């Protein structure tokens, strides 16, 4: 079998990954505070082990990583008191079953017991790193300084942190981020928010569709190359049998 077929196959596999990433971006083009991903390709050189003498290097295209674009999306006014958009590059800190996680989705809610939570029910932490509690039957408001009030009383302040290397954050679903070692420790920063607004997705549905088409066409090209190598191998085998 021709060695080149493996290079074409690796390219096809990479384009399938790129297609999945683009499709996920399009699906979340209207999701608040969703930050899009992109497949980062790298070239891999591999020595042909099948040849004991005079071996040569083969080039393979592979997806080295899935990188998240942390550029903030546009702010959309909702008028809802419990909606906030975070200014700058900070993240809200929430408590989950897996530990502290980080989000820019500021669509908050109040439970029957007065806990301030995200749309998925994760408790929002205050500056004291404890869940924020409010009066469940009172009007709740959030100031531009991230202070939380209910019934005319301040109940705490939203904990906002910033990471030196946001590229080290790993996604958990559409809204949550996990801080791996590469991200560093989240530094607490003054909370600056825009109440009554939500950050929109930073993904363009149009660009996402273009990426889907591009990945699909690139996959088709790789598929044709694979077929060409397969046909060449078949013809070579027939020629050898004919000579014999």
TL;DR of this structure?
The protein is built from two helices and 18 strands. It has helices spanning 4-27, 205-243, and strands at 37-47, 57-68, 75-77, 84-86, 91-96, 99-103, 108-110, 116-118, 123-124, 140-142, 147-150, 153-157, 160-162, 169-172, 176-179, 187-188, 193-195, 197-199.
Can you lay out the helices and strands and say which pair or pack?
Layout: H1 4-27, E1 37-47, E2 57-68, E3 75-77, E4 84-86, E5 91-96, E6 99-103, E7 108-110, E8 116-118, E9 123-124, E10 140-142, E11 147-150, E12 153-157, E13 160-162, E14 169-172, E15 176-179, E16 187-188, E17 193-195, E18 197-199, H2 205-243
Antiparallel strand pairs: 1-2, 3-18, 4-17, 5-6, 5-9, 5-13, 7-8, 10-11, 11-12, 13-16, 14-15
Q: How does the major sheet shape up?
A: 5 strands, antiparallel
User: What's the β-strand tally?
Assistant: 18
Number of helices: 2
Estimated radius of gyration: 25 Å
Flag low-confidence runs: none
Approximate strand percentage: 25-35%
Shape: elongated
Task: Let me know the average pLDDT.
Answer: 85
Give the SSE order as H and E letters.
Answer: HEEEEEEEEEEEEEEEEEEH
Through-space gap between termini: 19 Å
Alpha-beta content class: alpha+beta
What share of residues is helical?
A: 25-40%
């Amino acid at each position: 079998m021709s060695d080149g077929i493996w290079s074409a196959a690796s390219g096809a596999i990479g384009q399938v990954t790129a297609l999945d990433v683009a499709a996920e971006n399009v699906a979340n083009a209207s999701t608040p505070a969703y930050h899009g991903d992109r497949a980062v390709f790298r070239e891999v050189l591999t020595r042909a082990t099948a040849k004991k003498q005079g071996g040569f290097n083969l080039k393979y295209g592979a997806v080295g990583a899935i990188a998240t674009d942390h550029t903030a999306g546009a702010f959309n006014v909702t008028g809802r008191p419990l909606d906030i958009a975070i200014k700058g590059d900070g993240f809200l800190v929430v408590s989950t079953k897996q530990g502290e996680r980080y989000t820019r989705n500021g669509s908050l809610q109040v439970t029957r017991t007065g806990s301030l939570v995200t749309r998925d029910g994760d408790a929002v932490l205050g500056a004291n790193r404890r869940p924020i509690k409010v009066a469940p039957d009172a009007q709740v408001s959030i100031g531009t300084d991230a202070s939380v009030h209910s019934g005319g009383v301040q109940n705490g302040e939203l904990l906002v942190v910033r990471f030196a290397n946001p590229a080290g954050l790993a996604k958990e679903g559409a809204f949550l981020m996990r801080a791996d070692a590469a991200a560093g420790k989240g530094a607490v920063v003054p909370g600056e928010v825009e109440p009554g607004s939500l950050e929109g997705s930073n993904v363009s549905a149009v660009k996402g569709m273009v990426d889907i088409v591009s990945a699909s066409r690139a996959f088709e090209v790789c598929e044709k190359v694979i077929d060409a190598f397969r046909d060449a191998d078949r013809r070579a085998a027939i020629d050898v049998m004919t000579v014999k």
